[in-house]
Structures are given as C-alpha cells and as structure tokens.
Design brief:
The structure is a single chain. The chain is α+β, with helices and mostly antiparallel strands. It folds into 3 domains: 196 residues, no CATH class; 72 residues, Up-down Bundle (Single alpha-helices involved in coiled-coils or other helix-helix interfaces), CATH 1.20.5.1930; 123 residues, Heat Shock Protein 90 (2-Layer Sandwich), CATH 3.30.565. Helix content is 68%, strand content 9%. The chain has 12 helices and 7 strands. Helix 8 runs antiparallel to helix 9, helix 10 runs parallel beside helix 11 and helix 11 runs antiparallel to helix 12. The radius of gyration is 36 Å and the shape is elongated. The relative contact order is 0.07. InterPro entries: HATPase_C_sf (IPR036890), HATPase_dom (IPR003594), Sensor_HK_TwoCompSys (IPR050482), Sig_transdc_His_kin_sub3_dim/P (IPR011712).
C-alpha cells in the first residue's frame, strides 16, 4: 500500500465530508485538554516524580483522555443518527473522569501557600478540568437536561475528596462553581458543533433528494404524455380487432374494413409516439440555457450565460444538439462537483458554432459517488451525427471545461 497524501485525500472529499472531518477533530482536540495539566502534576513537585501514587494519577489522566476521544466519536455518531454504543462509552468516560479526579486530588502533590499558611490544593483545577472535558461527549450524546444532570452529579462527587485534601468549603465550592461554568461553555460549544454538522448532512441529503425528484418528475411527465397518446388508440385497436375477429368468424366482408381501420389507427399511433419521443429528445438551446440557470441557482451555483446574437440564427439541428450539451453539462455540475460558479458561452468561429462550459469545485480525486457515467460518450455520439466534436481541454486545478464544436 502506498503512502496516503493528506492534501490529495482532503481534496478528494466532498464539502459535507470536509465539514464533518473538521468539526469531528475540533471535538477530539477538546479531549486533550486535561493532558497538559495532568503532566503538570508530575512536574509540580520534583520529589514526587518517582512516587507510585503520582504515577497512578498520571496514568488515570491519560486513560481518561483516551476514553474521552472514543466517547466523542460515538456521541457524534449517535447525534447524526448512526448506529453506535455511545451510552456505554459515556458511562465509562464519566466513571474514569470521577475516579481520575479523586486520584489526582488525593494522590497528587499539594503546595502550601506562601501567605496565611492556608493549604492550597494545586490539583483541584486539574481535577475539574478532567470533569468538564468528560462533559463534552455527554452534551453531544445526551439530551440537554440529562447532560446537565450528569454534570451536576459529577461535580458533587468531587466535593468530598477536595475537602479531604484540606481545602476549605468556600474554596471547594468556588472551584466547583467555576468548573460548572466552564462545563456549560464546553457543552454549548460541543453541541453546537454537532448541530452544525447535522445541518450540513441534512442539506446534502436534501440536495440528493431534489435531484432524484427532478428525475422522477421528468419520468412522470414522459409517462403521462405517452399514456395520453397511446391509451385511447390502443383501446380502439383492441375493440376493432375483437370486432374484426367476430365478423371474420361469421364470414362477413366487413372484417377486412375493420382491419384496415386498425392498420390506419396503428400507423397514426406510430406517428404520434414518434412526435412524443421527438419532443422529449429535442432540446431547444435557449430553453435549455434558461433551465440550466434556474437549476444551478437553486443549488446555490452562480451561473453566467452568454449566447450572444448567434443562438437564434443557428440551424434548428445545431440548436438541438447544443441544447443537449447544456443539459448534460448541467447534470454533471450538480452530480460530480461542488461548484460555486458556472459559465456558458456560445461563439461563432468561421463556419462552426463553439459552445464552452466551465465550472469550478472539481475535486482532485473523484468522489465515491461518481461512477463511470456515459453522459459524455452520449454527447460525443450526438455531436458526431452532425460532424461535430466534444473536447475536454485542461482548465487548471479545481476547474472543468467542456468545449462542443458543430459545423454550420
């Protein structure tokens, strides 16, 4: 296996995937908050670095950091409606945080204040930091009221060891009150990150649903037109055929007349079906350009169209095939890119009409949803039928350019 290029991997992700990666790692970094403070315990008192009790406190702090990372991951997955076992990890995370706080308070070094002779518990801020770091996953994986209750229970659970270290009740309550405020801030931030990612995910799902609905609506339109054309004629053909069979069995000469009418209706139906298919397969250049602008703008893609004064003067066949180019190119912009801008330009050079389409937002690596489509191959076949050609010239990083040329 080759070495993964992080820049290439980042460019190969869609915008929703980039958003989730950024927000997820923002939460993971919050789990590392207790780590530097825990390491400070080991360096606060040089004589205690080899103390087994201090080592125990250090190991618990590191374990709490690892468990918090896992709890963040499962809690965010639960918030995004993905299957996960977040409750088990939240319970383990809370237990490790409380146990680590007890160990830090009771086993960590304590420093006497220089004034007043009052015992100052140096490890109290470290213990509270472990608590509000563990509160982050709970604020994401639990409803707000339950998360607040869990945080309050954790703060109360840390009060006894703080008092046992010699801290006064006022000092202990002050530290816990400050910790509660920080926990509130951490909880709001973490839940806001999760909510933002859920909004991005819902918008991405809505965009895919909109594309599917547009395809379904077009299929319904075609089926409705086909039903209107063929329904009556096929019913008439069936009735006249049945009548002709009955007349033929009786030896009546009118059977031939009925079959002649059936033949005539079938020929008319054939012509009508061709008209329906021709209308479905014909793409007017101006209409397709206006439709492309409306569709792209609805997807928050700025679209600039410049058909000039040549569009209406082009032959009907040329307008039709260029309209198909615009239709297929618009579909590609919506399906295979994260475009923010698209331009469509038509110009005339010599005896050829040149249609150029360019958009940004093209990932360096194709998205997983991009399959080996046949859209461009189909366009080349359509253009070849008119002695035209389709090229994809180099447009630079993140850009895609399509150039269709048709002789006049």
């Amino acid at each position: 296996m080759g070495v993964v290029n992080p820049v290439r991997a980042w460019r190969g992700r869609s915008k929703p995937q980039r958003s989730e990666l950024y927000l997820r790692w923002s939460l993971y970094l919050m789990a590392l908050a207790p780590l530097p403070l825990t390491l400070m315990i080991n360096s606060a008192d040089p004589d205690s670095r080899t103390d087994p009790a201090t080592r125990v406190a250090l190991v618990l702090g590191l374990a709490q950091t690892l468990v918090t990372l896992r709890a963040y991951r499962t809690s965010l997955d639960h918030y995004l409606n993905r299957p996960t076992d977040h409750l088990r990890w939240l319970a383990l995370n809370g237990g490790v945080a409380v146990a680590g706080s007890w160990a830090v308070l009771l086993l960590g070094p304590r420093v006497d204040a220089a004034s007043g002779g009052e015992l100052v518990v140096f490890t109290a801020p470290v213990a509270s930091t472990m608590l509000f770091s563990a509160f982050g996953p709970a604020s994401v994986g639990l409803p707000p009221l339950r998360a607040a209750l869990a945080g309050a229970v954790a703060l109360v659970a840390v009060l006894p060891p703080m008092l046992l270290t010699g801290a006064t009740l006022g000092t202990s309550l002050g530290v816990l009150t400050g910790s509660g405020l920080v926990m509130l801030l951490i909880g709001c931030s973490c839940r806001s990150f999760a909510w933002l990612q859920s909004v991005v995910q819902e918008l991405d799902i809505a965009r895919e649903a909109q594309a599917r609905l547009a395809v379904a609506e077009e299929r319904l339109r075609f089926s409705r037109d086909l039903h209107d054309v063929m329904g009556r004629n096929l019913t008439t053909i069936a009735l006249k055929s049945e009548l002709a069979v009955q007349l033929a069995r009786r030896g009546r000469p009118e059977a031939a007349e009925q079959m002649a009418e059936v033949q005539q209706i079938a020929q008319e139906s054939q012509r009508e079906v061709r008209d329906v298919v021709r209308g479905y397969r014909t793409a007017a250049l101006h209409a397709e350009a206006v439709g492309a602008r409306a569709v792209l703008r609805s997807a928050d893609v700025a679209c600039e169209i410049d058909l000039g004064e040549h569009a209406e003067k082009l032959p009907e066949a040329v307008q039709s095939v260029l309209g198909w180019v615009i239709r297929e190119a618009t579909t590609n912009v919506l399906r295979h890119s994260e475009a923010g801008h698209c331009s469509i330009r038509l110009r005339r050079e010599g005896g050829r009409a040149l249609l150029e389409l360019e958009n940004d937002g093209v990932p360096a690596v194709p998205l997983p949803s991009q399959g080996g489509g046949t859209g461009l191959s189909g366009l080349r076949e359509r253009l070849a039928a008119h002695n035209g050609e389709l090229t994809v010239p180099d447009a630079g990083p993140g850009l895609f350019r399509l150039l269709a040329s048709v002789p006049l």
